[in-house]
Design a protein that fits this description.
Layout lengths: L7 E3 L3 E4 L2 H12 L4 H15 L9 E8 L4 E7 L32 H12 L9 H9 L1 E2 L2 H9 L1 H5 L2 H7 L11 E2 L2 H13 L2 H4 L2 H13 L5 H5 L4 E3 L2 E5 L2 E5 L6 H11 L12 H21 L10 H4 L2 H10 L16 E8 L5 E9 L45 E5 L2 E8 L4 H14 L5 H6 L3 E3 L10 E4 L4 H9 L4 E4 L9 E6 L5 E5 L6 E4 L1
Parallel strand pairs: 15-16
Antiparallel strand pairs: 1-18, 2-10, 2-19, 3-4, 3-11, 4-7, 5-6, 8-9, 9-12, 10-11, 12-13, 13-17, 14-15, 17-18
Length: 529
């Protein structure tokens, strides 16, 4: 695959997502009179149908919003809590919470509540219209993506172990082929109920009853009371600075502050004097991020259950000390926990200047692998990231939200959105975000070029034993050699490797135009007009 580096440019509006059908759903919503908030919900719902291995009704989401009429950025935390009866004693005989199956699906899905908050607070179209594309693709089918085919094949044994999951995602004797028609009739009926009756049907109505009845039959722990008591919440973004931009990230339980901490370190280095793609570029960014991860791992959890010292961590003095500690000739030592990385990031800006940067996930590919009966809802396994160590800040407790990898980002100039950016990828999210932003801000790249340039990802993902530094094969071999000599545990991967995640970005140019980029590693598209 050749990197083209050509961003889509629009004069009025722009959408980007990791699947072209979802991008089209957002574009149609805007063209029929909806705003960015309506379009974001339409994209989100559609992604849950056409990228079902990554996201869906049974997952969580974070939403970074800018309302032009209010002139403010707000974050909606649409993540769920562990059930009120879920505690560490349920897992006394295991080393960790199971990542697959009903016993790993222990947090209430926040997605539908997120849709209601975004559309209900800022949208202008009727609620039911936002789900038309998602329902149509679920009911009539769509061409299955290469990414879904690959993930189905990789998780064949897990999917076949569940009759409900197998019936939907792994019918027959082999993974459905890319391009074949993929139909989800049960999910279509569920989406119709949500479109007709709103979020109440999911948390307190018929769907809630059917989902929790499945938990009871299958030996799970979530109850109707847990669903009825669920609520997300609006909050203020965390803010940092980078080269004149104001950087907005979701606050804990999101890991977003780690990206700000990395940028604060990099701001103390002169990247304009470092060649992009050189050993110094990669090493400096990687080491800054590893130091940010060290602090994140020590403190990140639900802020309702612990005090997180963000004022200290995001102070200029603290960043200066970290930046000075980086050895430019030697890789630092740091361990990371294994994380899932299958997520979907998307963004929208409309002609009024409203903007939404959002991200959603089932956590691992296909989440828990558990489908809630005949609802077609694939349940997330986000709660499996809780720790069973009673001294760990992210220890499992009833009614608690877990450490969340999801982190949509927005960079402001003069108080208005200038860059919307984010990516799939668990541990890779802060890394790819930092790469994209530095490429755009320090090296003048457009969104598409910044996304397409060779990437890296450091750390463990689920199923991996090492803390390897994965480098795409397009990186200069001499640079790869230098990184290895500095002590990085190198693994050279494909030229546009799926391990790098699926990124997206939108930039508002100085002329007021909108440039959009979508990742060639995904099935996505940026659409502007």
């Amino acid at each position: 695959m050749d990197a083209l580096g050509k961003s889509i440019i629009g004069t009025r509006a722009m959408v980007t997502s990791p699947h072209h059908l979802a991008s089209m759903a957002g574009a149609r919503t805007l063209q029929r009179g909806g705003n960015a908030f309506d379009a974001a919900v339409a994209i989100s719902a559609c992604l849950g149908v056409v990228y079902p291995h990554m996201t869906g009704v049974g997952g969580d989401s974070f939403w970074m919003t800018y309302s032009a009429s209010e002139g403010r950025v707000r974050v909606y935390n649409a993540t769920g809590k562990a059930g009120h009866c879920v505690n560490r004693s349920l897992y006394e005989n295991v080393a960790s919470i199971p990542s697959r199956g009903i016993r790993g699906a222990i947090t209430v899905p926040g997605m539908v509540d997120g849709w209601d908050a975004i559309a209900g607070t800022y949208g202008r179209l009727p609620w039911g219209e936002l789900f038309e594309s998602a329902i149509a693709y679920a009911e009539r089918g769509f061409p299955l993506s290469g990414d879904q085919h690959a993930n189905t094949a990789a998780n064949w044994a897990m999917l076949k172990a569940s009759a409900a999951a197998s019936r939907v995602y792994a019918p027959g004797n082999q993974a459905p082929k890319a391009g074949s028609s993929f139909v989800q009739q049960d999910l279509a009926r569920t989406l119709k109920q949500i479109a007709e009756k709103g979020k109440e049907v999911f948390y307190r109505g018929e769907l809630a009853e059917r989902i929790t009845e499945h938990f009871l039959r299958a030996g799970g722990y979530l109850t109707l009371e847990d669903f009825a008591n669920h609520s997300g919440y609006w909050t203020e973004p965390l803010k940092g600075t980078y080269r004149g931009y104001e950087i907005c990230q979701a606050p804990p339980n999101s890991q977003g502050f780690a990206a700000i901490l990395a940028l604060h370190q990099l701001e103390r280095h002169s990247l304009q004097h470092i060649e992009h793609g050189s050993y110094e570029y990669y090493h400096l960014l990687i080491e800054s991020l590893k130091l940010a991860f060290r602090d994140r791992n020590e403190v990140l959890t639900d802020p309702d259950f612990a005090s997180i010292p963000l004022d200290r961590l995001l102070s200029p003095e603290y960043a200066a000390g970290l930046a000075a500690s980086i050895d430019m000739k030697k890789a630092g030592e740091l361990a990371s926990a294994p994380m899932g990385g299958d997520t979907a990031y998307a963004a929208v800006i409309d002609e009024e200047g409203n903007a939404v940067s959002f991200i959603q996930s089932l956590y691992f590919e296909f989440g828990s692998g558990e489908v809630a009966g005949d609802t077609g809802i694939l349940l997330q396994n986000r709660g499996s990231f809780f720790s069973l160590d009673p001294k760990h800040p992210n220890r499992l407790e009833p009614g608690k939200r877990t450490f969340h990898t999801l982190m949509p980002a927005m960079a402001l100039r003069d108080g208005k959105p200038a860059i919307l950016y984010g990516t799939q990828g668990g541990e890779g999210q802060p890394q790819t975000q930092t790469a994209i932003l530095t490429r755009m801000v320090d090296y003048g790249m457009n969104p598409q070029s910044a996304i397409e340039e060779p990437r890296w990802v450091w750390g463990r993902t689920w199923g991996e034993a090492s803390h390897a530094l994965r480098l795409e094969s397009r990186i200069d071999p001499a640079v790869v050699k230098q990184l290895g000599e500095a002590g990085h545990d190198i693994r050279v991967v494909g030229s546009f490797d799926q391990a790098m995640g699926h990124a997206g970005a939108i930039q508002v140019t100085d002329e007021g135009f909108l440039q959009g980029g979508a990742d060639p590693r995904s099935d996505g598209a940026a659409i502007g007009w």
